[in-house]
Amino acid sequence: MTDLLNDCREAVLKGDRSFAEDLARRVLGENADPLKTIEEGFVPGLREAGRLWDEGELFLPELVLAAEAMKAATVILQPALEKRGEARKVRGRVVIGTIEGDIHDIGKTLVATMLSANGYETRDLGADVPVQKFVDEAESFDADFICISALLTTTMGGQKKVIEALKERSLREMYRVLVGGAPCSEKWAAQIGADGYAGDAVSTVQLAESFST
Amino acid sequence: MTGFLDRLTVGPVLFDGAMGSMLLTAGLELGAAPEVWNVERPEVIKKIHHDYLAAGAEVLTTNTFGGTPLKLAAHGLAERCEELNFAGVRLAMAARAEFPDRGAFIAGDIGPCGKFFSPVGDLDQKSAAASVQTQVEIFAAAGVDFFLIETMVDLREAEIAVRTARQSSDIPVVVTMTFDKKWRGYFTIMGDKPSAAVRRLSDAGADVVGANCTLAAPDMIELARILVADSPLPILIQPNAGQPEMFDGQAVYRVTPEEFAVDIKKILDTGVAAVGGCCGTTPEHIRAVAEHMHHGNVAGKTQVS
Question: Which one, A51, A104, B142, B262, has least CB within 10 Å?
C-alpha cells in the first residue's frame, strides 16, 4: 500500500493523468481502500504541487495538470467510495466566481479546482457574475464560503457590493466571504468587511482551512 | 522619414507611457473594452497621445491592446474589430500630425488574446494565429510603423503572434513579455525564462524583444541586464510606475516622474535600445525621462560630451 500511495502522490505531482487513472483502477482491482488512496496518496501529491508552485518551482501549466490528474483519479474512485458507504470528508461548500464586469477566468478557475481537489464542494459560477447571483447561489447551494475574484481595479468594488447585498438580506453571518485577484489585498478585504483575502489558489485553500478548523 | 529600425541604431528611443490606467483615470468603467473609446470618446484618446508627444515620446502606442478578435469577442465586440482598430490607428496619426517635425512612430498595439493553450485553457494555435492575423492586416492597411506585441505571458502565444506578423508584412515586429521574479530567477506565469524568450522570439522573426509590466524598477533593471546579455536583438523595457496600491477602490501608482526617470536612467545604462512606461505612468513620467535623456544625463549615444 505504501508503494501505491507513493505512486499516487508522484502521479499527481508530475501531472501524469493517465498514470493517476491507472493507479485508481488498480485500487479498484485490488479492492484496496479508495478513501485512504485519495487522502494519503493523491491529496498529498496535490499539496506538494501547490507548495512547489508557491516556491516558484512549478508554474501554472504544471499546477493545472496536477489538479487534473487528481480530479481524474477521484472520478474513477468515486463509485467505489459510494459503494462502501464512504465519502471524502467535505471540508466545506463553496460558491465561487469572478465579479460582474470582469471577464478574467483563469485565476478563479484554478482556485475552484484546488479547492475541490482539497475536499471542498465547489459551485463555479464562471466570470462576469452579477452581485445578486452570488447571494442567490450561495443560498441555494447552502454554501459555507463565497469566493469573489476581481482582476480589475474597476471591478473590485463589486466585491463590496456582494457583502452589502448579503447584509441587506441579513445573510452576512451565514457565509465566510473571501476575496482575491490582482488588485486585492488584506487591507482591501478588511476595508470592505470580507472575512479574508488570498493571493493565489494555494493560499485560498489554506485560508479556507483556517476557518474550518 | 527614417524607419523605426534605422532610428534605433542612432540611439535610445523613448516610447510613450500607459494608456489603460490613463483611461481609468479619465472615467473608463467597469471592465469595459478600452478600444470602444476609439469611437465613443476619440477626443480623450487623441489628447493622451498628444500629451505623450508633447512630453517628448517618440512612439505612440495605439489604443488597441485588447483589439484582437478573440479578446473583443469576450466583450461581444468581435464584429467591430476592424472599426475599433482602424479608429485607434487614426487617432494616433491625428495626434502625430499636430507635431509634424517630430517624426514620431506609430506602434500598432497587440495584447494577449485572453485565452490559454492546454492545459490551462483550450486555445488552439490556428485560432491564436488567425486572431493576430486579423489585427495585423488592419494595422498594415492603416499604416502603422511597427507592430508592438506586448505583455505576453505565454511564449507559445508570443511566438505565434510574432511569426504571424512577420509573415503578413515587412513591417517591423517588436515583442515584450511580462515576467515575475522567483527565487530561481525570472519567469512568466507559464514558466518561460527570459533566455528562451529571446531565442525563440528572435527565431520567430522579431526585430526587437523586451519586457514590460509587473516588475518593480529594481527587478526590471536586473532583468534588463539579463536580456541585454542574452539577446542579439535590441531590447525594449517598459516598467510600471511601481506596484499598484489600492486607495478608495482606485489603483494608485506611487513612483513619481522623477523617481521613474532615475530608474529608467539605470535601465538605459544596461544598454537597452528603447524605454517607455507601462501601468501607472503618465505624460509627466515620460517628460521626466525625456528631460534626463536630452540633458545628457543618460549613458549611450545621446550623452553630451
Answer: A51
* Chain B residue with minimum CA distance to A109: B120
In chain B, residues with a C-beta closer than 8 Å to the C-beta of A65 are 119
Judged by DSSP in three states, B31 sits in coil
Interface predicted TM-score of the whole assembly (ipTM), two decimals? 0.81
Measured between beta carbons, the chain A residues lying within 8 angstroms of B249 are: 153, 156-157, 160
CATH architecture of A2-83: Orthogonal Bundle (1.10)
DSSP A129: B
Same fold, A2-83 and A92-212: no
Copy the grid coordinates of residue A35. Answer: 478513501
Q: Does the structural domain B4-294 have CATH classification 3.20.20.330?
A: yes
| Rounded distance between C-alpha atoms, residue B107 and residue A169, angstroms | 51
At B84-105, the pLDDT tens digits run 999 999 999 999 999 999 999 9
CATH topology of domain A92-212: Rossmann fold (3.40.50)
Q: What is the pLDDT of residues B140-186, one digit of tens each?
A: 999 999 999 999 999 999 999 999 999 999 999 999 999 999 989 99
What pTM was computed for the model?
Answer: 0.87
The residue extents of the domains of chain A are: 2-83, 92-212
The reported pLDDT for the residue numbered A65 is 93
Considering all CA atoms of chain B, what is the largest pairwise distance in Å, rounded to the nearest integer?
Answer: 56
Three-state DSSP class for B268?
helix
- Partners of A67 on chain B (C-beta within 8 Å) are none
Q: Is the CB of residue B252 less than 8 Å away from at least one CB of chain A? A: no
What 8-state DSSP symbol labels residue B151? E
Among partner residues B184, B188, B244, which is closest to A183 by beta-carbon distance?
A: B244
pLDDT digits (tens, 9 = 90+) for B36-64: 999 999 999 999 999 999 999 999 999 99
